[in-house]
Amino acid sequence: MESACRYERKFFLEGMEPAAARAAILQHPAMFYEPYPPRWINNLYFDTPWMEHYQDNLSGSAERGKARVRWYHDLEGEVPHPVLEFKLKRGWVGWKESYPFPGFHFGPALTARYLAELIAGSSLPRPVIERMSGYRVALVNRYHRSYFASRDGSFRVTLDTDLTYYRSGRLSTSLLARTVDHGVLVVELKYDAEHETRAARVASRMPFRLTRSSKYVRGVEFYL
User: Fold this and answer.
1) Residue 143: which H helix or E strand, with range?
2) What fold does the segment set 6-222 form as a domain?
3) For residue 191, which of 107, 195, 209, 222 is within the disulfide window of CB 3.0 to 4.6 Å?
4) Taken in order 176, 221, 88, 115, is the CA torsion positive or negative?
5) Whole-number pLDDT of residue 62
6) What backbone phi and psi angles, to 5 degrees, belong to 66?
7) CB under 8 Å to 204, separation ≥6 — which residues?
8) Interior CA angle at 166 toward 74 and 8, to 5°?
9) Three-state secondary structure readout of 47-108
10) Does residue 114 surpass a pLDDT of 70?
């Protein structure tokens, strides 16, 4: 299923405490509030053997994409309802293609071969299975996400803290090589195309530095 297009503006914060970032969002003139509780997000990122998604994101290509399997809450253990997402971007505009992914157990015993067999035998659409056959796991990451929405419902903000990356060259040992991105927070401002004219004003009132950086790129570079 393809999602509607939305605009995204991203801010990387270094040296700011999560509580200070949260306070800055809640004090914004757009009157942001927290519509539901924060949660942990886990991702298995996939890329080609030549790391084409990484290269496109690193170079700031006008059209770039990511492929990932996402689930929430605990990293390890049974993952009953993961979602496969192809996240695509053109400039500031992004959209997703999402598909239910077969459940699996995430832990030291997980292997790339098992994942490949799981995908090949799944009920994913045949073109998606063929697309995934050209990928391999490139990164495992995890972060704690808080959600905010403006009172008029036009803008959404997420705050990601506790960013953690896991080496995935050999999935079976990925949990043994962990890197915590100390002192870094990520804020994203998200909105529909109809609100683009107001977005610059909303973004300018955030005391953060706008960036094109990617958590995926940052995580990959920890292990280059």
Assistant:
1) strand 136-149
2) Hypothetical Protein Pfu-838710-001 (2.40.320)
3) 195
4) negative
5) 74
6) -145, 150
7) none
8) 80
9) ECCCCHHHHHHHHCCCEEEEEEEEEECCCCEEECCCEEEEEEEECCEEEEEEEECCCEEECC
10) yes
DSSP strand pairing (63-72 vs 39-47): antiparallel
pLDDT in tens, 150-184: 999 999 999 999 999 987 655 654 555 678 888 89
Q: What's the whole-number mean pLDDT along residues 139-150?
A: 96
Q: Count CB-CB contacts under 10 A for residue 94.
A: 18
pLDDT tens digits, 194-210 = 898 899 999 999 988 77
Smallest CA-to-CA distance from 43 within 12, 82, 6, 91 is with: 82
CA distances from 139 to 31, 48, 205, 209 (A): 36, 12, 34, 26
Nearest-CA neighbor of 207 among 11, 54, 7?
Answer: 11
Distance CA 187, CA 193 (A): 19
Q: What percent of the chain has pLDDT over 90?
A: 62
Retrieve residue 18's tokens.
Answer: 């999560």
5, 87, 88 from 96: Cα distances, Å:
8, 5, 6
Burial environment of residue 191 by CB neighbours within 10 A (0 to 12, 13 to 18, 19 or more): buried
The answer to whether 219 and 20 are in contact (CB under 8 A) is no
pLDDT score for 163: 95
CA distance 46 to 153: 33
- Which residue would you say has higher pLDDT here, 176 or 9? 9
Q: At 90, which amino acid appears?
A: R
